[in-house]
Specification:
308 residues; alpha/beta; nine-stranded mixed sheet
Length: 308
């Protein structure tokens, strides 16, 4: 089966007891969510027991590690990368500074509405960026995750650069987990775009949702992990390369949670809410982010009985 667009995909939560949507947010949020998952685990809550997970960008990485039984290994890897930012940039094939890369980030940062046309415009800029070849980024993701097979129940999101459509990949999509995760985290002007089957895709967070939690309709209990809530916590300054959905339409995670509750799900929303001016692609932020996430996980654990 090929990868599916969001419109072609049926809700993934049907019949599920517990489901998790993991949102996007760069290296900072990868580390935060890893800390969060470890904090939950120490308190007796194992997100690997979720029937279904859907991950976007950073969430695609973390969700794959959790469902693939590689959380401890990813934790150790992030600790090493966070302590050595130069090594992190090399191993993750992160490059920036070329005019074409800056142009893609500018186009994304200046977007004030989310429509197929604006997503296609970002997609054109992403395709015209002189980033590292996608095969190198896929290899970096493969090395980071250490997964050779798809974790059962995990799904990733990406955005078709040409059409602007959201794309869902899973174990029956005919692509590797490393390809899917690389596509989901192909931030315009930094990495990728990455081929998924016959679609050239950019970061799944370049869309009207940073978590795609709406795909979990039908699950009895849903955990949404998002980076920002600009409606509840309006920022004075925003890093324009991140949180396009939240920047354009603040409060996205809470709106998705409300829709899921209306369909019968019990929903818990966790918002990291870092300083929005943070350089979220800086490896040096990983250590503090992981510590903050762990503390939040321990605090949230009593509320997540569905995952015990």
């Amino acid at each position: 089966m090929s990868v599916r667009t969001m419109g072609e995909a049926s809700p993934l939560g049907s019949g599920a007891t517990a489901a998790v949507a993991l949102g996007g947010g760069g290296e900072w949020f990868v580390a935060w969510m890893v800390g969060y998952a470890n904090g939950l685990l120490e308190a007796g809550v194992d997100l690997a027991k979720a029937d279904v997970t859907i991950g976007t960008s950073a969430g695609a990485i973390v969700g794959a590690a959790i469902k693939g039984g590689r959380l401890a290994e990813l934790t150790d890897a992030l600790k090493q990368l966070g302590a050595n930012p130069a090594m992190a940039n090399k191993e993750l094939n992160i490059s920036a500074g070329a005019p074409s890369q800056a142009r893609a980030q500018t186009v994304m940062g200046q977007t004030t509405e989310i429509t197929p046309a604006t997503l296609q415009q970002i997609g054109r800029a992403a395709m015209a960026s002189r980033n590292a070849p996608d095969n190198k980024y896929i290899a970096s993701v493969e090395g980071l995750l250490g997964l050779t097979t798809w974790p059962q129940g995990h799904h990733t999101t990406a955005t078709d650069c040409y059409t602007g459509e959201s794309v869902i990949a899973s174990s029956d999509s005919g692509v590797t987990i490393s390809q899917a995760v690389a596509a989901s985290s192909s931030l315009p002007g930094v990495n990728g775009p990455t081929w998924l089957s016959d679609r050239l895709c950019m970061d799944g967070g370049v869309s009207d949702s940073s978590t795609h939690a709406q795909m979990l309709e039908g699950a009895r209990s849903v955990l949404i992990i998002a980076m920002f809530d600009f409606l509840a916590n309006p920022p004075k300054h925003v890093n324009p390369s991140f949180g396009i959905a939240e920047r354009v339409h603040p409060g996205t995670a809470q709106r998705e949670a409300a829709a899921l509750r209306a369909s019968g799900s019990t929903v818990h929303v966790t918002i990291a809410n870092p300083d929005p001016t943070t350089d979220f692609m800086a490896a040096a932020t990983m250590g503090p982010a992981m510590a903050d996430g762990m503390a939040r996980g321990k605090a949230d654990a009593p509320s997540l009985t569905a995952f015990h």
